[in-house]
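Workshop exercise sheet. Pairs work together: one partner reads the sequence aloud, the other fills in the structure field after running the prediction. Swap roles for the next sheet.
Pair: D.N. / O.F.
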Amino acid sequence: MVSCKADKNITAIWHIYSNQNKWDTVQLSEVKALAISKGLIVESVEDVEFGFMPRQKGVLLKTDLGTALYPREKLENLDLYQKNIEPTENLENFWHSVDWFLPAFISRNQIFEPIKVCGIEILNHSNYPKKILQKRFDSALSSIYNFSNIIPITEDTLRKSKTVSKHVPLIRESILSFYSGMKIVAVAGLIPIVENIISNIIGENTGQLTIIDKVNKCVDKARDNVINIHFNHAQWTPKEYLEPSVLKVTNERVFILETIRNWLLTSFYSSTAEYDNHSGFNRHIFAHAKSDLWQNETNFFRALGVIQAMAFVECFAVEESKVSLFGPAHDENSEALRQEVFACMNYQLIKQQLLTMQKSEKGLPFNPTSSGDGWLIRASILSEKMDKEVIPRLRENGWDCDYISDPIKDGEYITVHARKEEKILKVALLFSCASSNKLYKKLEIDHEYILYQGSQYKQASFARGIKAEVRSLSAWIAPH
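Structure field:
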């Protein structure tokens, strides 16, 4: 593990040439001679490149007392590093503000284009109130995590993962459930997986550790290995190059890991008393049923995103992990899941239409679920009935329909106002006879006719005490 502590003779070499401002020009032979003069047995000394975006030049010295990597360029002289300090800090603040982290395994264009489309300027994100920023970002999640990456990452990347692969059947089932309409059930199925993956990454007895300790230990394992790779597995390098603020600029992998850590600690595992984000995607709110705030369908994409993020952590934290940083392949397993997803989507559409038709014909109420209640389908039916049945009947009898409302979800009805000479007629069309008596009383104040589409169902009970004309649409004759 690379460290800023080492034998004093190894560190002395760094300070001698640094004080002379010679690291950018010093010859390898000079470094070797100085090391020998300090009593070190030199195994090798060579010019190398190290780091990750940007690559940097350095001298790698291997001795009997350890290996040191001496950077040839000072941080203040690295133009790309200096240019990236402020943008990196701004980007880190952005991810914290939108209550998320930089996704792994997904191209930058696929991440940032949906964010731009939803009306967020990352450069000026601090100008937005947090809640508005998070609501806008929520609308981008389904485009960031779409079929093009959800399916192949599940079937390729996650199946190869040592810590996630056993959960792939459940992940696959959750995906199919989500696109079958059981959206909140899909979210609930994925949330508990995260902590198990974290424990598996640590790979030892974690019973005495708090979840905060687990998160830090898990991310630290990955981060330490990323840093070892960054510094060519040297055992010593100058302290300033190991600063977290520096590494987040010079190594995108460290940046991703730290944004994942920050989100896990300050959002997902935040105490309910301290949690104050729009999504409600919090482990404690979910586990202790503190509220139904977590029942947000976009949290499905968050759940998949954090599982993908843990696979990224595994890639560096788990020895001999088979997770690849390169884009997943769309193989026959991916195609099979894709076909299943589209079958579920088609079946869900048919099911909603069939249930709507059956309940409408029998006048039965529509009981909502947490994943949705089919309102859009019923709204389209209300609009169609108004356009093709109510309005034509009125016009046939000389009425001019000068106002037609949009379908109103609260009560599920639509209205029309018609004129004929000096007379005004107002008609309300309910989706179901089985609407509340309170709604009937509200509508009778301004409407001469209250119609309902579908068959009669306990009309006397639902419309008790109503003086306006209440009729089934099929039995209604427009007045002259």
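Discussion prompt: The CA atoms of residues 120 and 309 lie 23 Å apart. What would you look at next?
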